[in-house]
Write a structure and sequence with these properties.
- By secondary structure, this protein is of the alpha+beta class.
- About 35% of the residues lie in helices and about 15% in strands.
- It has 24 helices and 17 strands.
- The strands form three sheets. It has a six-stranded antiparallel beta sheet with strand order 2-3-1-9-8-10, covered by helices on one side. A six-stranded antiparallel beta sheet has the order 4-5-6-7-11-12, covered by helices on one side. A five-stranded parallel beta sheet has the order 15-14-13-16-17, with helices on both faces.
- A hairpin with a 4-residue loop joins strand 6 and strand 7.
- Helix 3 packs across helix 4.
- The chain is globular.
């Protein structure tokens, strides 16, 4: 999980950066980029690399978290002839296959190609096959910028779902800026910041920058009719998890005790035991909750005992969580209520995991969007509407769950991987007809996912058939109740009465939302920054309450009374 920043400047040396004079010597492009990138240095604490040409007017920076190719993969990466530069954030999961294609295309007269890291293959593949074939072939979670000095063209791309963040902007002098986090751009591009859309790319002169989609599957516009094959579904998820296990540093898995993260941890454990020929290998797993009341903690412990993981419970107090609210807005770069509620325990857990020396963890994000796991999906009026809502949720992941998971972990230099959002698994799951994926009367949400693993002894039945519990609820119901009341208490009636006037876009509907919006505006001023945010709310037009907590949905089933007596709810 790294951070990248690029500036492409018109006029070269004749156009200094904006707003940096003020009686002081003008900053060089290198100084400017190094300073602004320092705001995301938490994403990559291992190394800062730059390539810059003041005369040509460009600079590319990477803040590196070394996970693969630890000794050889420092960026920016440059081609053998020195004309192609790359900065990338993320992981390329099929880099070994891509490297083989490069070697085979090189022929006997070319020296054998050996990638310096997973991202290095992007440079070699671009040189051999060009940008179009590169985008068709690459699989992973990524946002990258490649600059070809021979053609003076850039290639910018973001993965299909937007697991990895990327923002773009222009300053008053017309310079094009790109960075992994908005905070790097806001000082200079506050009126022109945008989210670089997932599944999009741009190849051409930077002056004409306009991303276009390279990922446009049929299921986005059409209701699919593929009948589920439970064996195939299980095999594809297992393959996705295996591809996400490539790692040269200590790793683990988040384990909330819900279906999704539990499945990922269980599959990973089996694969790693097989790979190591060690039947007693113990994957490090981690859960977080309020002590004594965290609903997820007991279920996570049950899964850890079942799969034989090396499990750690991290506890936090309500006061500790509230201390992080301002940091939550700063690191998440959003004012969405659901995201702020969720990212606080993510940040607390990530900090603990990083302190134990781990650099990468697996997680279960994405399953609820693919399989309609949120409880409000029970209100879908028909299967076609169910499908369209899952599409909307998948296309919005980069502004909700992916944003929260990525930035919450990256705040402490921890990489998070999400096998459910593997491109090939995503394509298969979203091509299954909604009749198979939708919850029905007496049929729980994500039923086919549960069925696919029901006969393989991956999880205890109490967890395999456990009802969906949203993460911010599962850490302890009193967390949401407390943070909502606490935030609302910081907004007066007079202030709240000005909500529509002060915030005409995404007008806050509660005092809690108003408070988060105020914090956001303080840190990220400008209308364009506010428009990078999408609020996560259930479908009120389906009769659902606006509050995003799963407890507010009509199908939610009560509370666990204590952790010593977990009430199993089997269908």
């Amino acid at each position: 999980m790294c951070g990248i920043l690029c500036i492409f400047r018109p006029g070269h040396r004749s156009s200094p950066p904006n707003g940096v004079c003020n009686g002081r010597p003008k900053e060089t492009l290198r100084e400017l980029a190094f300073q602004q990138s320092s705001k995301q240095r938490h994403r990559g604490p291992d190394h800062t690399g730059l390539v810059v040409d003041e005369g040509e007017g460009f600079v590319m920076v990477q803040e590196r978290l070394a996970v693969l190719g630890v000794k050889t993969g420092n960026q920016p990466l440059t081609s053998a002839d020195g004309t192609v530069h790359l900065v990338a954030n993320g992981e390329i999961f099929n880099f070994l296959q891509m490297a083989t294609m490069v070697r085979e295309a090189g022929g006997e007269l070319m020296p054998p190609y050996e990638p310096r890291s997973d991202c290095d293959v992007l440079v070699a593949f671009y040189e051999r096959f060009g940008p179009e074939q590169l985008l068709k072939t690459v699989r992973g979670m990524f946002a990258f910028v490649l600059y070809d000095r021979k053609s003076q063209q850039i290639l910018v791309a973001r993965d299909p779902v937007g697991i990895i963040p990327l923002y773009v902007g222009r300053d008053r002098g017309g310079s094009l800026w790109m960075a992994s986090e908005m905070k790097c751009l806001v000082d200079y591009c506050s009126e022109g910041v945008q989210v670089f859309p997932p599944g999009h790319a741009y190849c051409g002169r930077w002056e004409s920058f306009k991303p276009t989609p390279y990922f446009s599957p049929r299921w986005i516009k059409e209701v699919p009719n593929g009948v589920v094959d439970l064996v195939e579904l299980r095999k594809r998820l297992e393959a996705a998890v295996e591809s996400h296990l490539q790692c040269d540093v200590p790793m683990g898995a988040l384990l909330s005790g819900g279906l999704d993260s539990s499945l990922i941890a269980s599959i990973a454990t089996r694969i790693l035991r097989r790979r190591s020929s060690n039947s007693t290998f113990r994957l490090k797993t981690y859960s977080i909750g309020l002590p004594g009341v965290g609903l997820d903690l007991g279920y996570a412990r049950m899964v850890a005992d079942f799969i034989g993981s090396d499990h750690t419970e991290v506890h936090f107090t309500l006061a500790e969580g509230l201390d992080y609210i301002r940091h939550a807005v700063y690191h998440s770069e959003t004012y969405d209520v659901t995201t702020i509620r969720c990212i606080v325990p993510v940040m607390l857990l990530a900090r603990y995991i990083r302190s134990e020396g781990l650099k990468m963890v697996l997680s279960g994000e994405g399953a609820d969007e693919l399989f309609g796991g949120y409880l409000y999906f029970h209100r879908a009026p028909n299967t076609a509407e169910f499908h369209r809502e899952t599409v909307r949720r998948v296309l919005g992941l980069h502004l909700s769950d992916c944003l929260r998971a990525n930035k919450g972990c990256a705040a402490w230099g921890l990489e998070l991987r999400v096998p459910f959002l593997d491109t090939d698994f995503l394509q298969y799951a979203m091509s299954i007809r909604p009749e198979d994926r939708a919850p029905q009367e007496h049929v729980p949400e994500k039923y086919i996912l549960r069925q696919a693993f029901a006969t393989a002894n991956y999880l205890p039945p109490e967890v395999l058939w456990r009802q969906k519990e949203q993460f911010s609820d599962g850490v302890g119901y009193s967390w949401i109740d407390t943070v909502s009341q606490w935030a609302a208490g910081r907004v007066s009636e007079a202030q709240f009465a000005t909500a529509s006037e002060r915030f005409p876009f995404n007008t806050p509907s509660t005092k809690e939302a108003f408070y988060y919006r105020e914090l956001f505006e303080e840190m990220f001023p400008g209308a364009s920054c506010a428009r990078t945010v999408q609020r996560w709310v259930p479908r009120t037009d389906w009769g659902c309450p606006e509050d995003p907590s799963g407890r507010k949905q009509h199908v939610h089933r009560g509370k666990v009374k204590d952790l010593g007596r977990i009430e199993t709810k089997l269908e």
